[in-house]
């Protein structure tokens, strides 16, 4: 590699590293504040749950502890992945298929560790990155698929990414599930989990205080080991995530927001 290339690389690397540090500091402070002052303890509920995850890993990062706690008590938990998790690997279909397969295997491994049986895991296989821009027909079909799952299991609780999670697939997942709940005409308690919200929302500007006002914290200390092992099984994903990002998810609390119906 010549000098110029090395320099170009460094230029690309430096601002990112700085950005990551700022994001890491901001996100750690925000989460610490939420856990210490800005949240109420969430009482563990024995209701069955259905978790909707845009990509293979969001469910474990956001809700892995909750899932493991419920499964240890034999409470039913179903997980549905909305996209195929191919990421942005370009057009090579062989590589794409391989990645999709790896992501699925990792998801099943992670969820098995958390106690979810393979028969309770669904892959809806929408193309990664397209949830917000689905064509009308495909969008309607997706909502129907979700509604069918809701009808089949009639969960007491539904977990979705936060409606302002600073990622287009995550925010679209919230909207799709919300519409599916209305279509399925079932009574559920809707809870949001945050993946990118604290990380990407720059210093409270985008993140209005009211959006984090109704935060709840669930102690997952009893199953932390399981969750960390489940996270580790997503080895193909972990490499691509910003340094420091994963750290928050290794803690002994999970943060949820209740959506008023
Ligand atoms: Zn995601």
TrEMBL record:
Pfam families: PIG-L
A single MF term (Gene Ontology): hydrolase activity, acting on carbon-nitrogen (but not peptide) bonds, in linear amides
Highest taxon in the source lineage: Bacteria
Record's protein name: PIG-L family deacetylase
């Amino acid at each position: 590699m010549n000098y110029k290339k090395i320099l170009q690389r460094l230029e690309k690397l430096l601002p990112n590293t700085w950005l990551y540090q700022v994001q890491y500091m901001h996100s750690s402070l925000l989460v610490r504040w939420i856990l210490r002052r800005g949240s109420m303890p969430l009482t563990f509920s024995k209701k069955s749950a259905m978790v909707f995850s845009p990509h293979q890993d969001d469910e474990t990062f956001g809700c892995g502890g909750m899932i493991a706690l419920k499964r240890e008590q034999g409470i039913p938990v179903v997980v549905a992945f909305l996209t195929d998790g191919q990421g942005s690997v370009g057009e090579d279909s062989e590589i794409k298929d391989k990645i999709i397969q790896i992501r699925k295997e990792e998801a099943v491994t992670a969820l098995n560790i958390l106690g979810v049986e393979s028969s309770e895991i669904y892959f809806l296989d929408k193309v990664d990155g397209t949830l917000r821009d689905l064509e009308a027909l495909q969008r309607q079909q997706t909502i129907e698929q979700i509604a069918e799952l809701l009808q089949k299991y009639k969960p007491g609780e539904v977990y979705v990414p936060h409606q302002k999670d600073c990622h287009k697939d995550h925010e679209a997942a919230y909207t799709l599930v919300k519409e599916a709940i209305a279509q399925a005409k079932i009574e559920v308690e809707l809870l949001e989990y945050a993946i990118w919200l604290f990380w990407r929302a720059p210093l409270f500007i985008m993140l209005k205080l009211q959006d984090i006002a109704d935060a709840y914290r669930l102690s997952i200390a009893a199953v932390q080991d399981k969750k960390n092992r489940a996270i580790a099984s997503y080895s193909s994903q972990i490499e691509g995530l910003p340094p420091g990002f994963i750290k928050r998810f290794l803690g002994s609390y999970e943060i949820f927001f209740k959506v008023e119906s």
